[in-house]
Amino acid sequence: MSIKVKKLTYQVRLTKRMELGLVGLGRMGANMVRRLKKGGHTCTVFDLNPDSVKKMTAEGFGGAASLEDLVQKLAKPRAVWVMVPAGKPTESTVQALAAVMESGDTIIDGGNSFYKDDIRRAAELKKRGIDYIDAGTSGGVWGVERGYCLMIGADQTAFNRLEPIFKTLAPGVGTIDRTPGRDKIPGTAEQGYLRTGPPGSGHFVKMIHNGIEYGLMQAYGEGFDVLVHKNSQDLPENERFDLNASDIAELWRRGSVVGSWLLDLTAMALVENPDLSNFSGSVEDSGEGRWTINAAIEEAVPVEVLASALFTRFRSRREHTFTEKVLSAMRFKFGGHVERASGG
Fold this sequence. Notes:
Blueprint: E1 19-23, H1 29-38, E2 42-46, H2 50-57, E3 62-63, H3 67-72, E4 79-82, H4 88-100, E5 106-109, H5 115-126, E6 131-138, H6 143-146, E7 149-153, H7 156-169, E8 193-197, H8 201-228, H9 245-252, H10 261-272, H11 288-299, H12 304-316, H13 322-335
Parallel strand pairs: 1-2, 1-4, 2-3, 4-5, 5-6, 7-8
Antiparallel strand pairs: 6-7
């Protein structure tokens, strides 16, 4: 899905104008600077793909040929937002930026880094006088219009300095009904951005957010699977229903307690292709689900649903597991049970 800039009609709140550098013009990075520009901020961008930078400069953004060039083009104190894949790409980018930045500058990691890496980086950079902020960012390709939910781990001073950036990226209160009593509680949570605590806490909260997302997605998937198989030939004829999953998804969007943005997206997909034949069913995991389970183990917290959702993704990527072959072998040995032929 592509979003054409000239057709965007989203609203953002104007705040104190700031300058930001951004590294990584993938699915989210490019749209984030578009939203910031709409809010009056000045952005200079860099990506390993020169064509991506060229595309953004054609839209009026400043472009850089390297990380060093990016830093040199920013006014002090500088702030650079990193939107590259977690792991080695983020680590190398942060270290390269730190090598050319100065005391008073700030590096913001908006990807999905492991929170313990954030704690380490923040401590290392603090020795150089460089602030490190981890900003768990949710919103995907729709964030340019809807805004981005930001879970921010930062020292209070660094957060305050860059708050105009966070406020512009966030969705604001919008049309969502306010939680009763929330108007008496100070803070920014209902604006869609929040300083969750010190460095590391933002990505920890985002990690749990994604773990919950796995569980929610799995619940919807299993529910619709039961619906579409209610016409199975294995059921008594008078108990078979030919249910329209697309209509039911749309129905549940209207007043149901299971309504959500994930259901909205499911309804869209079912309209486009009711049997979802354009998908194989092989589901990847991006790492946060695994980290969530590890955190639960460290805390001795039971997370049956989240763990099951993660393991189901593992299973989706294998046609038949060795586990299943062992089960078949045992059934054959103790009872002479013959399994169905492959493909049968």
